[in-house]
UniProtKB/TrEMBL annotation:
Annotated source species: Streptomyces venezuelae
Keyword Transport: yes
One Pfam family recorded for the sequence: ABC_tran
ABC transporter domain location: 16-245
Highest rank taxon of the organism: Bacteria
Protein name (record): Multidrug ABC transporter ATP-binding protein
Keywords linked to the UniProt accession: ATP-binding, Nucleotide-binding, Transport
Length: 268
């Protein structure tokens, strides 16, 4: 593993993993020999814009293949004959997702169920259950174009969960939310981690502190740390045992990140 700091993976058998993956865009290397495992619970991918977080999510979603290395999803290596079956067990919330403003919330969620090959007889109930999960069932008849940013994000989670996935991928899910919306959304993501494996990319230390069980720090396409959030917080103090749970906050996570990055500010 190309890490300068690492900790043993915790939790159960990984739901997803990448081993020695490299991805290049022309002469630019987006990921360089990256190895990570993703067990149940919430794993954060922390790093500045351009660190390779979104590229890694694209590998886990089967949208992209690595130049070299292996990707394992739900115990399988994606192959052309297996990709469609694997995608039925994966939910994705992009940083920006498209929707028809005139669709109602329920119509949009049912449409997502159709895209994910949910059987026709189950689509309406799956959509309603997903909306209940994100506390949007009372707004099922509202038009998508009339929703606030926080409500749109909740519907985004609903469409990602409508196929009852084993793996959920969230790309910068709290960007653009006001502080109150961010708090509520973090609580929702934490609850999702009790149902399935969640991988969340973010450049916000507060997101990691309040949501994640584990964290991987990506810098310039390489993994600089992987372990628990407490272990990341302990790095500046040289305490291998990890930080006290009561000491974990955004500032402590940022201090651990800065220790790895060797800089004075988290790049946004």
């Amino acid at each position: 593993m190309s890490t300068s700091h690492s900790a043993a993976a915790t939790g159960s058998q990984p739901v997803a993993a990448v081993a020695g993956v490299t991805v290049r865009y022309g002469s630019t290397t987006a990921l360089d020999d990256v190895s990570l495992t993703f067990p149940a619970g919430v794993t954060g991918l922390l790093g500045p814009n351009g660190a390779g977080k979104s590229t890694l999510l694209s590998l886990l979603s089967t949208a992209r293949r690595p130049k070299s290395g292996d990707v394992t999803l739900l115990g399988e290596t994606p192959r052309r004959t297996r990709v469609q079956r694997l995608r039925k067990q994966i939910g994705v919330l992009p940083q920006s997702f498209g929707y028809y403003p005139r669709f109602t919330v329920l119509e949009f969620t049912e449409y997502a169920a159709w895209l994910r090959k949910v059987p026709a007889a189950q689509r309406r109930e799956r959509a309603r259950e997903a909306l209940r999960l994100v506390q949007m069932e009372k707004h099922a008849g509202a038009k998508m174009g009339a929703l606030s940013g926080g409500m749109l994000r909740r519907v985004g989670i609903a469409q990602a969960m409508v196929n009852e996935p084993s793996l959920v991928l969230l790309d910068e899910p709290t960007v653009g939310l006001d502080p109150a919306q961010r708090v509520g959304f973090r609580k929702l993501i934490k609850e999702l981690g009790d149902r399935c494996a969640v991988v969340m990319s973010t450049h916000l230390a507060e997101d990691v502190a309040h949501v994640c069980d584990r964290v991987a720090v990506l810098l310039e396409g390489t993994v600089r740390f992987t372990g628990t959030v407490a272990e990341l917080c302990a790095l500046p103090h040289g305490d291998a045992g990890g930080a006290d749970i009561g000491d974990i906050d955004g500032g402590a996570v940022e201090a651990g990140y800065l220790h790895l990055a060797g800089t004075e500010a988290v790049a946004g």
